[in-house]
Automatic annotation (TrEMBL):
Its main location: membrane. Residues 96-294, 385-667 form the Amino acid permease/ SLC12A domain. PANTHER family: SOLUTE CARRIER FAMILY 12 MEMBER 7, SOLUTE CARRIER FAMILY 12, CATION COTRANSPORTERS. This is Solute carrier family 12 member 7. It catalyses: K(+)(in) + chloride(in) = K(+)(out) + chloride(out). The keyword Lipoprotein does not apply. NCBIfam families: 2a30 (TIGR00930). The keyword ATP-binding does not apply. It is found in: Cell membrane. One of its GO terms (molecular function) is potassium:chloride symporter activity. Residues 1-37 are annotated as: Disordered.
């Protein structure tokens, strides 16, 4: 037996997902399965490979560093060109632990942690650190669960979230993460420049402050100028060679670790030999130690008392009798040791917070102070003051960036030997380590450093030294240089990471306007993305204040972490079959707690930034939902939608809805042409106008044949219908059924379309315009059977005649009318439809007119009043008109029409029948003619409830009596004398034709100019013999009208006067 490699027959099915294992026939082409053991399966071998060959492929599959490539795209095109790629070899320590450590520890630790401890006090600082670290730890647990659920491709957090929460969330989170990383780059650059200008080369500043109050502005302008230069430089470095950045990463990491070790060493040394950093205090106020060397008012040199430099600052001149600042005169100068050491007991003084407004003096409350200060003059004097107003929530926002960076390991998932093992262990260990470092730092800073020095942000009181540097051993320069390089490195890494992330999102194609950023240099470097990143970074640099940029990036990272926790919680709660993480120590409550913490920290640190970040994420989400590419990644949110839908469907039990809630849930029966194109797209426009996106719409179609032979055609038909639906903005579902004949197919659709409580209650179809042509012999039979079946199923039926002349969704009909001809009441659908149509822009300007037909013995004036009252209670605006139809004699025209009709019916039948059937049919026609008179008499008793004809009970009686009157019979005889063959006509048909002709005259007379005419649709005859005649009656009834909608109620009230 030989195996046909490529051939696949219908019904074998093509698995949708293009994975590297299934469907990859390259490997199997050579193996013809000669063995007889597996002969049963050989025909399906190409789509369902043998387990042995599958395992063989799995073993050869390496988790390559695919960069931004979508991992689900099998690399089939490159099959021949694929080079041997060395499999990634990084372990947990090098691949996850160190990168995370490097990204988490950074600028805030060196530049702001001492100030946070001094301002918030040890207890509140521990609270801040605990809050932020708990948040990241919980997020890391959720992230580990997601990362160990299947092979994580390169691309890190963005891929994890987009594949588990779907493209909308993935895009929103990916862009949040991108913006966070970009602003982080700005923050690191600002940190670098702050270290450079404040501690390394203060004389390099371009903007110098002439007066003290201008210092802040001068610093910010320097940051802007130098920051922009630094950003340009870094961008060029990244553009020229990323590999150098990655090589330098270890150098930068060494700087960070050395700096931290230097701090711990300094703390230990401070126990037995504290460093000498005196702080000069005037009264209880801290002085900036820049312009003077001695903390004295007067000094004795060669037995002469001379004034010091400080005296000149606070007094009018250097003379001893000069007038001095009152506070200077009243208070003594004291030297306080800036770093009293670990055992000095300063820990207790630093326990509590000291918040204050902008410009508040940094004071030591233990020292005595005597009044006489003048706030207006104090701002010109060299006191150390708060440069921003401080409060707890601000510090949370400033501190949070120092715990971000937990994604660094998962971002390198492509380079790991065993990502599923390394990511959880490495990330959680890194967070544990950094949490320990932060908590110990908070306690040690509080225990070693004097409070006034802690609150001195830029170290002005210790000759402009970095405060954390004063503590370190062997020299402050270790920390200054170390932190400078660590900030540089972190900035460079942000500038390398962010463009790659943007490129990955762009290449996924879920955000159309980002497509341009997917392109890069020949070697795949994202050039355009780098430019955008640098541009956004520049915004951060123009803000210029580290304390203002930090909360912005906190927001974006928090949004990202929030979604990671949400993804884990959703997947766990839904118990998605594919949710089987290797990492077992997670629980949905932890994820939920992490999510709540993220949300809380967002609003704690800055409620307005939080709202802005959420709006940005929301806009991206809606944009992707509206414009984005259709991506099916088997995400959790889809599972959530399914669960919600199932829950809602079970709640919507099969009980019919209350009349107030009744709205047409439409099954549209579409016809397709021979190429599976939609024949009457206007039918879909009508559906859209009727539904306005509310309720259920199912668009059905029937193909003739068997499913196995027609499978491809059915798929094509479905595609065409879906594209027509999107073109006509019809929101709903498409359902193509293949059936042995059209009649059964339509029947199956009417019975089985929909699910549970979400079933249709109305069928919309177009009038079979070609029913008289020999080429379309079955159309009228199918049509009538459909009418019968909708009646049997208690569903309403709408038939649109001349459907191609109906307006499109873009048309706007001018002043005009929608005319409703209310002949019999079958549930009020006639009233409801114009109301629903007028909700849509197309029909909004149309007025509604209601016509009803009065018989001989009706009081038409009273009828009009009653109808107006009824409409008033229904809260519908419409003109009302009662049209009188007098019982005139049946005209010759009617008889002629009936004769032509019956002759055509006979012809129609003879075209389809074989000889034996013809004989049987002739007998039937004979029986029918004799029985019809009896049937007429029975019909009067049957009454109009069962037969939806345009007859009322009184009319039937009067009609029958009139036929019994002798003078009427005379008139009829006269007619028969004119044309003898009229006498053989079925009288029931003649009367029906009479109704059709008369009603048509009246309708055409009143409604020929209307935009749309709605009319009760008479039911088909009870006995099937008169089916062709029924079609003729309807043709006569609708003659001369342009747009008509025939309406047949479902046998229940659909409109109510009650609220």
């Amino acid at each position: 037996m030989e195996h046909k490699g490529g051939s696949r027959r219908k019904g074998d099915g093509v698995p949708k997902e293009n994975s590297p294992f299934i469907n990859n026939t390259e490997h199997d082409k050579n193996n013809s399965y000669d063995g007889t053991n597996m002969a049963l399966f050989e025909e399906e071998m190409d789509s369902h490979p043998m387990v042995s060959s599958l395992l063989n492929k799995l073993a050869n599959y390496t988790n390559l560093t695919q960069g931004a490539h979508e991992h689900e795209e099998a690399d089939e095109e490159e099959g021949s060109k694929k080079k041997a790629v060395k499999s990634p070899q990084m372990g947990t320590f090098m691949g996850v632990y160190l990168p995370c450590l490097q990204n988490i520890l950074g600028v805030i630790l060196f530049l702001r942690l001492t100030w946070i401890v001094g301002t918030a006090g040890i207890l509140e600082s521990l609270g801040i650190v605990g809050l932020c670290c708990t948040c990241t730890m919980l997020t890391a647990i959720s992230m580990s669960a997601i990362a160990t659920n299947g092979v994580v491709p390169a691309g890190g957090s963005y891929y994890m979230i987009s594949r588990s929460l779907g493209p909308e969330f993935g895009g929103a989170v990916g862009l949040c993460f991108y913006l966070g990383t970009t602003f982080a780059g700005a923050m690191y650059i600002l940190g670098t420049i702050e270290i450079l200008l404040t501690y390394i080369v203060p004389q390099a500043a371009i903007f110098k402050a002439e007066r003290k109050e201008e210092e802040v502005d001068a610093l910010l302008n320097n940051m802007r100028v130098y920051g922009t230069c630094c950003l340009t430089l870094m961008a060029i470095v990244v553009f020229v060679g990323v590999k150098y950045v990655n090589k330098l990463a270890l150098v930068f990491l060494a700087c960070v670790i050395l700096s931290i070790l230097a701090i711990y060493a300094g703390v230990i040394k401070s126990i037995f030999e504290p460093p000498d950093f005196p702080v000069c205090m005037l009264g209880n106020r801290t002085l900036q130690n820049h312009g003077f060397d001695k903390c004295l008012k007067t000094d004795v040199i060669d037995n002469l008392t001379v004034t010091t430099k400080l005296w000149s600052v606070f007094c009018d001149g250097p003379e001893l009798n000069a007038t001095c600042n009152e506070y200077f005169a009243n208070n003594n100068l004291t030297l306080v040791q800036g770093i009293p050491g670990l055992t000095s007991g300063v820990l207790l003084e630093n326990m509590w917070s000291v918040y204050g407004p902008l410009g508040m003096m940094v004071e030591n409350k233990k020292l005595s102070s005597f009044g006489g200060s003048d706030p207006a003059k104090d701002i010109y004097l060299p006191y150390v003051v708060n440069d921003i107003a401080t409060f707890f929530t601000l510090l949370v926002g400033i501190y949070f960036p120092s715990v971000t960076g937990i994604m660094a390991g998962s971002n390198r998932s492509g380079d790991l030997r065993d990502a599923q093992k390394s990511i959880p262990v490495g990330t959680i260990l890194a967070i544990a380590t950094t949490t320990f470092i932060y908590i110990s730092s908070v306690i040690l800073f509080g225990a070693c450093i004097e409070g006034v020095l802690l609150r001195d942000k830029f170290g002005d009181s210790v000759k402009g030294n970095l405060v954390i540097g004063t503590l370190s051993w062997p020299s402050p320069w270790v920390i200054v240089i170390g932190s400078f390089f660590s900030c540089c490195g972190a900035g460079l890494q942000s500038l390398t990471g962010a463009p790659r992330l943007l490129q990955a999102i762009a290449r996924d194609g879920i955000v159309p306007f980002l497509q341009v950023f997917g392109h890069g240099k020949a070697n795949g470097e994202p050039t355009w993305a780098l430019l955008l990143t640098a541009g956004i970074c520049e915004i951060g640099i123009l803000i210029a204040s580290l304390d203002a940029v930090a909360p912005i990036l906190s927001m974006f990272f928090l949004m990202c972490y929030l979604f990671v926790n949400l993804a884990c919680a959703v997947q766990t709660l839904l118990r998605t079959p594919n949710w089987r993480p290797r990492f077992k120590y997670y629980h949905w409550t932890l994820s939920f707690l992490g999510m709540s913490l993220c949300l809380a920290i967002m609003f704690i640190s800055s409620w307005y930034y939080a709202i802005v970040a959420m709006v940005i994420a929301g806009c991206i989400y809606k944009y992707i939902e509206y414009r984005g590419a259709e991506k099916e990644w088997g995400d959790g949110i889809r599972g959530l939608s399914l669960n919600a839908a199932r829950y809602a469907l079970i709640r919507l039990e099969d009980a019919p809805p209350h009349t107030k809630n009744w709205r047409p849930q439409v099954l549209v029966l579409l016809n397709l042409d021979s190429d599976q194109g939609v024949k009457h797209p206007r039918l879909l426009s009508l559906t859209t106008q009727l539904k306005a996106g509310k309720g259920l719409t199912i668009v059905g179609n029937v193909l003739q044949g068997t499913y196995l032979t027609k499978e491809a055609e059915a798929k094509k038909a479905e595609q065409n219908i879906k594209s027509a639906m999107s073109a006509e903005r019809t929101k709903g579902f498409c359902h193509v059924v293949v059936s042995s004949n059209l009649r059964d197919g339509v029947s199956h659709l009417i019975q089985s379309a929909g699910l549970g409580g979400m079933k249709h209650n109305t069928v919309l179809m177009s009038w079979p315009g070609t029913w008289r042509q020999a080429s379309d012999p079955l159309s009228w039979k199918n049509f009538i059977e459909t009418v019968r079946e909708t009646t049997a199923a208690h569903q309403a039926l709408l038939v649109a005649k001349n459907v191609d002349s109906f307006p499109t969704n873009q048309d706007r009909l001018g002043e005009g009318t929608i005319d409703v001809w209310w002949v019999v009441h079958d549930g009020g659908l006639l009233m409801l439809l114009p109301f629903l149509l007028r909700q849509h822009k197309v029909w909004r300007k149309c007025k509604m007119r209601i016509f009803t037909v009065a018989q001989m013995d009706d009081n038409s004036i009273q009828m009009k009043k009653d109808l107006q009252m009824f409409l008033y209670h229904l809260r519908l605006d419409a003109e009302v008109e009662v049209v009188e139809m007098h019982d005139n004699d049946i005209s010759a025209f009617t008889y002629e029409k009936t004769l032509v009709m019956e002759q055509r019916s006979q012809m129609l039948k003879q075209m389809h029948l074989s000889r034996t059937e013809r004989e049987r049919e002739a007998q039937l026609i004979h029986d029918k003619n004799t029985a019809s008179h009896v049937a007429l008499n029975d019909k009067a008793e049957a009454g109009p409830e069962q037969v939806h004809m345009t007859w009322t009970k009184e009319k039937l009686f009067s009609e029958r009596n009139r036929n019994r009157e002798p003078n009427a019979n005379v008139a009829v005889r006269d007619l028969f004398n004119m044309k003898p063959e009229w006498e053989s006509l079925n009288q029931s048909n003649v009367r029906r034709m009479h109704t059709a002709v008369k009603l048509n005259e009246v309708v055409v007379n009143k409604s020929q100019g209307a935009h749309l005419v709605l009319l009760n649709m008479p039911g088909p005859p009870k006995n099937r013999g008169g089916d062709e005649n029924y079609m003729e009656f309807l043709e006569v009834l609708l003659e001369g009208l342009n747009r008509v909608l025939l309406v047949r109620g479902g046998g229940r009230e659909v409109i109510t006067i009650y609220s």
